[in-house]
Automatic annotation (TrEMBL):
It comes from Bradyrhizobium betae. This is Uncharacterized protein. It comes from the Bacteria.
Length: 174
């Protein structure tokens, strides 16, 4: 009950303030109408200058996105060439400086991970928007001249699982 009494008092107070605001604004509105009409806000929509600026920004954003897409595609091809050659090949001179300093330091495992991700993920990693798991971010890395060979496959030692894979003595074929 106390809550409803407090809310009724608050509503009455807000209504009184609203009425007072309307009464106090009457002289200002009368003077405004006498000396040139009411003040009107700006027209809806943006001015031509703002629209032109927005169009230029959108065009530049599209150009940056297109450029980073081209760099990501070329970098993917560079990764494939490096994997085929079993080591980093020469980095194209037109790559951005950050990528030219980063690419020769990648390991074979990182190159394989970058080749296997989606093109948009590779593009985002190169731009620094988010990282591909297991791959270092784009930063200067010491160059690697050749990737170490992969270790030869070694047959795993027979452990406790081998006991259950073979039949028990006296139960052959059962």
């Amino acid at each position: 009950m106390l809550k409803s009494i407090c809310s009724a008092i608050g509503a009455a107070f807000r209504a009184a303030i609203s009425c007072l605001r309307v009464v106090l604004s009457i002289p200002g509105r009368l003077l405004g109408s006498v000396f040139g009409g009411p003040l009107v806000g700006p027209p809806p929509g943006d001015s031509p200058l703002v629209e032109d600026l927005a169009a230029r920004v959108a065009a530049e954003d599209a150009a940056v996105a297109n450029n980073s897409r081209k760099v990501a595609e070329a970098f993917w091809h560079w990764l494939m060439d490096s994997l085929i050659a079993d080591g980093p090949v020469a980095v194209p001179s037109w790559f951005p400086r950050a990528i030219k300093e980063w690419a020769p330091g990648l390991t074979a495992a990182e190159a394989e991970k970058l080749v296997s991700v989606e093109k948009t993920d590779l593009q985002s990693h190169l731009r620094g928007l988010f990282a591909v798991p297991g791959v270092r971010k784009v930063q200067p890395l010491p160059s690697v001249t050749a990737w170490p060979p992969e270790p030869a496959y070694v047959e795993p030692a027979q452990g406790w699982a081998a006991q259950f894979a073979t039949p028990a003595p006296g139960r052959a074929g059962a």
